[in-house]
Fold this protein.
Amino acid sequence: MSSIASAGTHHIDHHGDHGHHHESFWTKYVFSQDHKMIAKQFLITGIVMAVFAMILSILFRLQLAWPDKEFPILEAFLGKWAEGGRIHPDFFLALVTIHGTIMVFFVLTAGLSGTFANLLIPYQLGARDMASPFMNMLSYWFFFAACMVMIASFFIESGPASAGWTIYPPLSAVPKAISGSGLGMTLWLISMTMFIISQVLGGTNYISTVLNMRTKGMDLWKMPLTIWALFLTAIVGLLSFPVLVSAVVLLIFDRSFGTSFYLSDLVIQGQILPNEGGSPILFQHLFWFLGHPEVYIVLMPALGLTSEVISTNSRKPIFGYHAMVYSLIGITVLSFIVWGHHMFVTGMNPFLGGVFMITTLIIAVPSAVKSFNYLATLWRGNIRFTPAMLFAIGMVSFFISGGLTGLYLGNSALDINLHDTYFVVAHFHLVMGSASIFGMLCGVYHWYPKLFGRMMNEKLGYLHFWLTFVGAYFVFFPMHFMGIDGVPRRYYAFTEFPFMEKWISVNVFITWSAIIAGLGQIAFIWNFFYSIRYGKKATQNPWGANTLEWTTPVKHIHGNWPGEIPAVHRWPYDYSKPGHHEDFILQTVPFSETMSSNLPHDFEGNPEAERIQREWELANKPQPEKETE
Amino acid sequence: MGFISNRKLRAVVILTFVMGVFCVSPAFSQETDTVAQAVDTAVTPADTSGTDSVVVAADTVAAAAPSAAAGATPTAATVEAGKPSIAPQVYKNFFYGILLVLLVCVLVGVVGKILEVYELTRRMSGKDTTYYLHNANAWLFLISLVLGLYGVYWSYVHHGAQSIRDAATEHGDKIDAMFMITTIICTIVLVVMHIALFGFAYKYRATPTRKAYFYPHNNTIEKIWTIVPAVVLTVLVLFGFFTWRGITNVSEEDQKSALHIEVVGEQFTWTVRYPGRDGKLGERNFRLTTPLNGLGIDFNDKSNWDDQVGSEIVLPVNKPVRVQIGSKDILHSFYIPDFRVQMNAVPGMKTFFQFTPTITTEEMRDRLGDYTYNYVMLCAKICGGGHWNMQKTVRVVTEEEYQAWLAEQPYFFTEDLQKEFKAAQVTDERADDLVLANAN
């Protein structure tokens, strides 16, 4: 391979030489250090975890829709947790907790960032691999171990953690308060610690790759928005996850070593505990200092992926590229100073609540700019509805409708009545759950040819999209109204309150929608795994996209490009440029080859280039007019 | 295109058929006369991870986990039922359910095949095979826009009417006014943005002749749509900030003039404490908790001696109430939806919420036409297995009714407690003497 590579390449693929020949099954598929293989590992693990967490959600939806009915089959599977076919209240909380944990951390953080940061950062920047492939491999295996430990907690006597995914102490600290806070919570904490290690390893890698390993000509303002989003996501993660470590470690101390960081004045079932002087509010501050940026860690990659897909499939440049980047940066910075909006009514100083409200509502401005720019990108486009594009449009829809309800919850006065109700459930499932998972699915459909060298079935993709899109709205839209009525979340049954009984019929509707949308995922799973072997063979650039990954060969090679890494000459969004014969121009095409379509601002004030362009235009402009005559 | 090649499709159909026969055949279920045998499941790839793991989790049923092959291989497993016997019919039904899902999958596959054939005929007759799909999706977007907007309208009318009740407190009206303004703004944005989103998707769907309009940026437009949301949000922020301060920032005078009551949460019940004649709630100390003195009330503090236990929360109408919220064990949340009142109960820390109820329970019943209606206080913070039923009735009554009710409420300082308290004092004195003696 190096025989093809010219000596002048600034990053010679010498590991391409060695790696190719001695790869065994283990080094190629299991302990792989290749970014493409690691991306696949993250993706498939993410999908498996997503299915697992989705099944958990169906289980608790069954309970909510038919609180008085018995499902004997559940006992066959769950044993004592569903005695007589009725899910146990403690286990209900465990289901809710693990569903949330898996979805937020394992699917939408690791599954989303892990997959696409690993796949796209080297590909779209023109790098042979990640800055540190070994760390990258460790990152995956820590994540995998975290998943295993989390699932293992279902097989222990006292059951998995069940204090909610936010694991607020003292509930999570005192095993007597709920059975899940015994060994289950210990496993949760171990799993989360490993997960954070994985995130920090990954994040460091992503940042250093973006900063150091861009190909020639790829300055920051020529990076695709996906990279911007993944880069900023990694920064947010790197700064906030360590704070969760501190929260987790202090909780471990409180649980196992008798400290009182979070505990004070507790009388659990008549027994006076010795702890004094701690504060549960401290945990909430530490948790949400990660927890809120986490929301953007989940959302920003989805925004990046959809920007790319919407632009490509509208055959139009993304509208306001700079504004898109600046709003991402704005979201990144602001995401660190809004965490208090999760704590308006937790006993935090009310004045502080007012301050957090102001910062929270400011973050709506960059988000609004992003949505408007998406719409402007679609406007007068030539929209091709590939499955990826459908999911991208769906993502924008969820981002709008879920984001708007943020205006209620970010407002501390309104939050008094909506805090911890179904309104919150509806809000975050739309804006961070559905929007992010749609971003992820959009990415999977779009980059599948790059991942596996084959195409997914389009029509199954359409079926999958419409079932999921409609299903998600059917599930989450009615929940807003339950919340306004004052139904708290994490309630096992709505049977004990007269005012909630009217919502049971709505719950039945929601559960059926969830089941149908859940079954709709079979279309995806089948499509995904079937197409790995039997899908239609992909061409090199099936979508007519501009970015660098589509210049690599379809068959994966170690080092990505045979020979020299291509240099970059232009931004990634020259779609449908007037004067060019095709509706896309790859980033690798120099301006000298596209004289007929160059625009004055392309040269960024380079007088020499402008002069050449002017001369060319003088020489060539009259000709086409003559031809048309 | 060929997501199911013919060979594969045939295999699936045959498998489904075989499984059907296998299950329906009476011999199979009669052979196994007791509950000792049942059919386990064929698992589709989608279900593998979930069902497999939960099967093993079941400890009452020693189930042989289905070794699900990549496709759909039927696995009959003998299940030895433990104590709680599960009727074989249950497994059968489950199996039928899975069969049904598989059947639907096969149907989808068949439809896919038909579509492929249709596409082939289109291609052969020289028609396009890409753009008709774009068209179909564009139309679906238009339809979902229309149905979706109608759905939003329907939800607002039906579910909205179910969920919005008059606020029964002074500040609640302000919150509701702000809620309405926010809802109006949000609904307008929601509708306009979705008309644009789905409308553009429909209107600018790909056609062979269209070329997209190269339009990378327009600074004026971008400035406008940065500034307009910023202005709208500023208005909302200011409005919200002053409402919030109005609710939470209560002057000391107002605090003093209010009726003070305390509500203490524990798994899974609430205790209500009225201050008695002196109007003062005395101090509590969790170390003094005994079976008799559940709240750990410190009776050295004499203002505790006349404190009364409230069987429910009864409040006089139009009088400010300052609720002191506490927790004995873990976090709870004091939440009265009708009052627009919520505050967490935090162990080791007092939290407060001051409000003025304005509508008596009777009046509210009249308004709603529901004569069993009650305000209710419930727990809104996850607190364990009984979280879903941790409630206390709240009644708002006239001043006279309130006084009459209050007179009937018992004191915390019962005779038994008084004895306990005296005994404790004696031992305390002894201990003090002992300390003195040692010191000397």
Q: What stands out?
A: The radius of gyration of chain B is 34 Å. Residues 426 and 432 of chain B are 10 Å apart (CA to CA). Chain B touches chain A through 141 residues (CB under 8 Å).
